[in-house]
Amino acid sequence: MTSHRRARSIVAGVPRCDATRGRSYPLLVRSITLRALPAACASLALVACGGASARTAATPRAVAANPVADAACGAATQAAVAGATLQAARRIYGLELESVEVREDRRQVENYGPLLTAVAAGNQAAVQEAVTALVYSHTHIVRLRVTRHGSLLADVGGPYILAPVTGVLRLHGRVLGGYGFSVQDDLGYVKLEQRYVGAPLILRREGRRVPLEGTIADAGIAHAGLVRYAGSTYFAKSFGARAYPSGALRVTLLSAAVGPSRKACVAVRADALAAIGKRIWTRFIFVGASPSSFATAIGGLTGALAYVLRGPHLLAGSTRRPPAGLGHAGTLRFHGLTYSVRSFTATVAGASVRVFQLIP
Fold first, then answer.
1. Exposed, middle or buried by CB within 10 Å (0-12, 13-18, 19+), for 150?
2. Which of 77, 113, 234, 326 has the fewest CB atoms within 10 Å of its CB?
3. Confidence class of residue 48 from pLDDT cuts 50, 70 and 90?
4. What pLDDT is stored for residue 69 in this prediction?
């Protein structure tokens, strides 16, 4: 199994709504050599197409000044930037555990007749054959294992797998055994993080570095705080993940060191997430993906709403209509939530557009 096949992008997090008809629909997008997945009309704690977006767009309201929120971020600047980096990296991992495609793969495993029949009969050879067929049948599964009464019957797929999904196999209501699968391997995760977030990272399983291309080779990098790497100073921040089939996996990311900012921490965080969003846009456009694919993906990756406008015309967006009076920057209220607005100019098919990111 090649890493090209394993490195899939699960980036759909909020639905993309048709700019002219206001309906939501799944969309298949391609980014770099990675395949993005169809999006369901779900919110990920944001505004869903079928819900708030079906209402008339709210007029932005000025947000009252808050002495605490508006205070200079100062010494907390580095933590704010690192937190934004970590947020995006964790979202990539989280979508490997729960997404439309993960649910589809779960149903496929639980309803695959040859597998259920083989497990019920205790035929290990037939189980191995069925598991192999599932892994290599153009599903998103990169590794699958099946157990019966605590005994392993089959385990097929590549090494260094993360984000295991587990469940129970039943036939006519009777429990036959259990299964565990993953739709992503460590290398695929690293590739996604490098393309979309771009922070140097190291993966450790049970405290030992996972030897993967594209990761930090220095196993002595601290889990948190200021560190030196490749002659530069970074700030390390980590989150816990799960290895396959079990065990702890720790992901440590390095954010470039920054000095104290006079901006509020919320603005510092918004700037950092907006920079990641712009990086994602650049990657998508580089491979010829449409603005709508970017609008679909950005919510899952950074939590932002996105709108692409050519003059007054909406080319793509996270909701049917953008907020009325949307400015190039600042803060606004939209459907009861407060957003920091960031935007940049770009070119699509030879035409100038402006890309807006609304960061909650």
1. exposed
2. 113
3. very low
4. 59
